[in-house]
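Protocol step 4 of 6.
Sequence for Imidazole glycerol phosphate synthase subunit HisH (Phenylobacterium ferrooxidans) entered exactly as in the expression construct, tag removed. Do not edit the line below.
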Amino acid sequence: MQNVALIDYGSGNLRSAEKALVKAADGQSEVVVTCDPETVANADRIVLPGVGAFSACMTALSERPGLIEAMTQAVRTKGQPFLGICVGMQLLASRGLEFGETRGLDWIGGDVRRVEPTDAAAKIPHMGWNTLVSPHGPDLIAGIGDAPMYFTHSFAFYPDDERDVAAWVDHGGRFPAAVAKGNVAGVQFHPEKSQSAGLAFLARFLEWRP
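Step 5 output, C-alpha cells:
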C-alpha cells in the first residue's frame, strides 16, 4: 500500500484535506499527516495544503527543521508525485509578492501576485464555485473537464512559462487555476471543498504516474 504524506506545517485546512484524501483513497492508500522529515522523504506521494498569506506559509514551512529538504529529496530527487493546494500551489513559485517579497520553493519559475480583474463587478477575494477554462496537460488536470471547483483566494501564481499552466479560470479576466511540470502539480481551488468533483480529482492524483 502506498503512503501519502499530507504536510502539516501549521498552515492548511488539514482535517478537511485528510478526510477527503482518505475518502478518495478508498482503502488503497495510507494518508499520514506529518512534518517528520524522514516520513516525508520516504513518502510515495506528497500533498502540501496552504491557507493564508504566502509569506506566513513560507515562513512556517521553513521553520520546520529539515522539512523542505525532505520534500525536495522525495519530489525533486526521487520523482515522487506532488500536489500543492491553494497556497501550497503558490509556494511552488520563485517568489510571492504579498506583504513585500518572499522567496518561494522555486520549483516552477514565476511570481504570486494579487488578482486584478479587468471587470469591476468581479470581487476580490475570488470566492465560490467556478469552472476551469481549457484544462489540459497531464490526465490529472485534463480529467477535470467542466466540473466546477471551489475557490477562495486573492492572489494567484503566474508562471514565467505559460506552458506550465495546466488550466485557467475566468473571474473578470483569466488567471492560472492549475500548474503542472513533470511530477509537480498544483491547483488554486480546494478539491477537499469541491464535493464529488474534488474527490474524483484527488483519486486521480493518488493514481497519477507522471
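Step 6, annotate. The domain at 2-207 is CATH 3.40.50.880 (Rossmann fold).
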